[in-house]
């Protein structure tokens, strides 16, 4: 817990930073929270960073598009605390200027070499806005998948799973868009699609099973690999499908089918 006196001090110092230092390109925000005397594992406590981040975000929200060098500085020079303040600012800024900040965050995300930071941006900045306006930026996020970036793909995996749990009606439109790129799926996208189908199972089992019914006659090894890796339950149609693959003359399809038979056998118990 932060005492009331310290809350007031931190808010006052944050506002002072916004009014006096930021316009002069003095970006050392840590001068605000480093004065707090207590430490947890030799770090400023998370609630302090949260308070500073949210206070600053509220001040910046209206004209947030004027301070991109500051945001870049937070990410590149201020460590974990800077990242947290960054995501609080982005969460507010994206509500006021969604087009501007989706474009900015795209550049940021594809420049990262850090999964944790990538996930934080998706979870704390993008998802809160996306779940209220999925129809507006869903195609944008799906287009990011086509770039086949390791960190972004993993971040999107979590976002889409959360999204269909929050709004199950999005399962069909998201799946339909993903499905159109199956034929050219890279190994990373094969895994992504399999994980998404698994996520569908936990939300709508009937829709999950309908996917296998649709593809019960497929002989395409890419489609087979996606579907095989997504098996999470026993179903007669799925068993018939993998048995057919296992007897294929196509070496790759046969291997996938044999693997699928092992999965089905385990699920049948």
Description:
With 269 residues, the chain is mostly helical. It has helices spanning 4-21, 30-33, 46-60, 68-77, 79-96, 98-109, 115-130, 134-145, 150-166, 171-179, 187-203, 205-214, 221-229, 236-246, 251-268. The chain has a domain at 181-269. It is built from 15 helices and no strands. The model has no long low-confidence stretch (mean pLDDT 95).
Residue-averaged pLDDT, rounded? 95
Which shape, going by the Cα principal axes? elongated
Number of helices, counting only DSSP H or I runs of 4 residues or more: 15
Order of helix and strand elements from N to C terminus: HHHHHHHHHHHHHHH
Q: What about the largest sheet? A: none
Structural class: mainly alpha
What is the terminal-to-terminal distance? Answer: 50 Å
Strand tally is 0
- Low-pLDDT runs: none
List keywords for this structure.
mainly alpha, 15 helices, elongated
Short description:
The protein is 73% helix and 0% strand.
SSE inventory with pairings:
Elements: H1 4-21, H2 30-33, H3 46-60, H4 68-77, H5 79-96, H6 98-109, H7 115-130, H8 134-145, H9 150-166, H10 171-179, H11 187-203, H12 205-214, H13 221-229, H14 236-246, H15 251-268
